[in-house]
Amino acid sequence: MGALEQQMFDMGKAARAAAIILGQSPRALKDRALLQAACAIRRDAEIILIANDQDVRAAKERGSSGAMLDRLVLNPARLESIAQGLELVAGLDDPVGQVSAHWQRPNGLDFTRIRVPLGVIGIIFESRPNVTVDAGALCLKSGNAAILRGGSEARATNDALYACLVTGLVDAGLPASAIQLVPTDDRAAVGAMLAGLDGAIDVIVPRGGKSLVARVQAEARVPVLAHLDGNCHVYVHSAADPAQAMAITLNAKLRRTGVCGAAETVLFDMGFDAGPVIRALLDQGCAVRGCSVIQKLDARVTAAKDTDWDTEFLDAIIAAKLVGNLDEAIAHISTHGSHHTDAIVTQDHAAAERFLREVDSAIVLHNASTQFADGAEFGFGAEIGIATGRLHARGPVGLEQLTTFKYQVRGTGQVRP
Amino acid sequence: MGALEQQMFDMGKAARAAAIILGQSPRALKDRALLQAACAIRRDAEIILIANDQDVRAAKERGSSGAMLDRLVLNPARLESIAQGLELVAGLDDPVGQVSAHWQRPNGLDFTRIRVPLGVIGIIFESRPNVTVDAGALCLKSGNAAILRGGSEARATNDALYACLVTGLVDAGLPASAIQLVPTDDRAAVGAMLAGLDGAIDVIVPRGGKSLVARVQAEARVPVLAHLDGNCHVYVHSAADPAQAMAITLNAKLRRTGVCGAAETVLFDMGFDAGPVIRALLDQGCAVRGCSVIQKLDARVTAAKDTDWDTEFLDAIIAAKLVGNLDEAIAHISTHGSHHTDAIVTQDHAAAERFLREVDSAIVLHNASTQFADGAEFGFGAEIGIATGRLHARGPVGLEQLTTFKYQVRGTGQVRP
Asked: Does residue B414 lie within any of the structural domains?
């Protein structure tokens, strides 16, 4: 076994040992670790910002782009928001030990299904250094040990932020190895994590762009909670309220174009006058790629290519299509969607209920913006991401989704006949 | 693409199309298909038994063993039990559409989490032909399409039973491809299923011996619901009621030795007199492999090897060990167990609660036999197996565990600020 592989295996073993302790730790200790980490971040703000400046300067020297730099850079306001995020997670209910079902059988056996941590969670992420703290905090609160693998471009920042998490853990008397940061930028470390570190990792959560998620999904030998695409739709039904259709479509597309819940295609029923919405999108600087009918509505609409219906633009671009009816809309979403988040706008109750029932996406909305696809908006407090797989967790992955369960069966000497 | 691969891909496409219809089908249609299949089995009993006789004779000619033949052979009583199994599943509640959570947010958005089918389930099994019907029925009732791959040794029996399932589907007006039986014994078909048929299979359930499950877990590129080992423990605490310890240990080991919930190791606290239980096991024909202390209790006890603590005997053999206290018992189970099912026998409430909390198994029991590890005993009605993975489903996999969920969000025009 090579030195790197041995180092990763040792991290896995330490994580597993820490997970056993964390799984039995009371809420007060976990919250203390989170709050003390927030204190440490505020106390060490200058150190962290200096480290971040070092990362940012190195990135600039390598010629990194504006969006990439924006993801990397911290400032006092962003750092305070990271610290507040720790306090927010400390304030959330502890999912561990919650009873999700309880029943008795005629033979007197008493069954309780209670939430327990998943175990060890591997997080693989790119340039956003806040993920170090956010993901570590959510894993800790849900009783899971975390192995974090951040991007090399944020190495100094991640190290500085990670030191604050360790301060919190140690102060609370919890094992420092409850949250570990992979100390090498060697890409082989990612491969070792994806192989599961000899059974030490229970689930992998990738956080980053599509190429990262695609690699993780293709190579992981352990379960992955992730979404590859957020190709979200707004379907404006013939019975839509025009003002709602306008507000929801503009918000779903343009509130933030870079989030996975942003709408990428708008489908207009042929019984609805699409013109005003199309013109408003264009007026607000959104490029519209339309089918032949939509193109006729405004000269600024360009022709949609076949691939546009399958594209997550993550930008101020929307594909727009006329459909004949609800069936066609559902069929289009079924063919081109990514089972993430899709919305219908209509005043027709029956049409809305059919859409909510038949569209097979993690989140289906009626008369609301797709941009509500977010754990905080669901009331989960915080999320580690959104999952579009079908098993375990669909939609926002919050504290509850970072747990599994076990059955406790209490008897009085029952044997099975 | 080869002919076999094309055939398997076509099955996947047909299954996906059927899954969309099944997922929207009302309970009455699914139940009708199940009940009509039961009728067909009773009507075609003679045909099925002749086909089975053909399989059994061929197996004998190949020199198959007694246990393997017993798994393969059907008789009128076993066939009637298969038909009754269909009626039982028809009588169970439909999990699809059940609301598992419902809440509102301050902005007026109304959230409902409802159960929806997983989609397409691939079942890979060995010689028991009843799995064709049992697994097909559970998938159908939970709204999932099924692709069944049975053992070649049961080919004629499976074909005959499968014809009855198709009769039921057609009679109910459901697509015949809702349940498909792989028509080839080519082992490459299994490989194609494990690769997911280009996204057409959502989850694989292996049913059979350890080598089958191990292959599926190692090679599958889609999620697997399964357990590899059922190395279950009974821990007899110092404060155990002697009569309960006797009854539970004997039942856990000997009621049926071939089931995954059978106990394989009994741990005796040094404060408990293990002699009577050990002698009763031996008197009932169970081989006991003991640690040095247990060996002194009866001359018939043989010395346990290190590997015995990790072995699922699935036979009238038990490993027996003295432990110093509850901590040692929990540590032993943590080291050697398979996270399946473990029990403590004690009158000490605090010790029992610690065991139930700290032993990290899908099922933990207090004063009850490990042989209750069974979906029917949990009140699930029926199960497709027991899962020891940590994600999605742990423990018995019944109808509810064969579903996932989606969030339906009902608004009145909300956009995200």
From this structure: no
Residue B360 distance to chain A (closest CA, Å): 8
Q: Could you tell me if A266 and A400 lie in one domain?
A: no
Strand A110-117 and strand A99-104: the pairing is antiparallel
Cross-strand bridge partners of residue B392? none
Using CA atoms, how far apart are residues B363 and B365, in angstroms rounded to an integer?
Answer: 7
Q: Which residues contact B163 (CB under 8 A, 6 or more apart)?
A: B40, B44
pLDDT at A2: 86
Is residue A242 located within the same domain as residue A212? no
How far is the CA of B151 from the CAs of B122, B128, B179, in angstroms? 14, 8, 17
Residues A322, A296: one domain?
Answer: yes
Domain span holding position A300 = 232-373
The answer to whether residue B100 sits within a structural domain is yes
Written as one letter, the residue type at B80 is E
pLDDT digits (tens, 9 = 90+) for B298-316: 999 999 999 999 999 999 9
Q: State whether B104 and B193 are in the same domain.
A: yes
Best probe of the B interface among A390, A392, A394, A403, by most B CBs < 10 A, is A390
Give the bridge partners for A146, in sequence order: A121, A179
> In the 3-class helix/strand/coil scheme, how is A263-278 assigned residue by residue?
EEEEEEECCCCCHHHH
Tell whether A179 is covered by a domain. Answer: yes
Same domain for A237 and A336, yes or no, is: yes
What ipTM, to 2 d.p.? 0.94
pTM of the model: 0.94
Q: How many CB atoms lie within 10 A of CB A61?
A: 8
Inter-CA distances, A359 with A406, B18, B94, Å: 32, 15, 20
Q: Is the CB of A103 inside 8 Å of chain B's CB atoms? A: yes
Q: Which residues of A touch B361 (CB under 8 A)?
A: 406
Domains of chain A: total: 2
Are B394 and A414 a contacting pair at CB < 8 A? Answer: no
Instruction: List chain B pLDDT tens, one digit each, 417 residues.
Output: 789 999 999 999 999 999 999 999 999 999 999 999 999 999 999 999 999 999 999 999 999 888 889 899 999 999 999 999 999 999 999 999 999 999 999 999 999 999 999 999 999 998 789 999 999 999 999 999 999 999 999 999 999 999 999 999 999 999 999 999 999 888 899 999 999 999 999 999 999 888 999 999 999 999 999 888 889 999 999 999 999 999 999 999 999 998 999 999 999 999 999 999 999 999 999 999 999 999 999 999 999 999 999 999 999 999 999 999 999 999 999 999 999 999 999 999 999 999 999 999 999 999 999 999 999 999 999 899 999 989 999 999 999 999 999 999 999 999 999
Residue B413 near chain A (CB below 8 Å): yes
Q: What is the CATH number of the domain that holds B190?
A: 3.40.605.10
Nearest CA in chain B to A254: B416
* Contact state of A379 with B105 under an 8 Å Cβ cutoff: yes
Residue B367 maps to which CATH number?
Answer: 3.40.309.10
Average pLDDT over residues A373-402: 93
* Residues B246, B149 within the same domain: no
- DSSP secondary structure code for residue B400 in this structure: G
Q: Which of A371, A410, A415 is facing B248, going by the closest CB pair?
A: A415
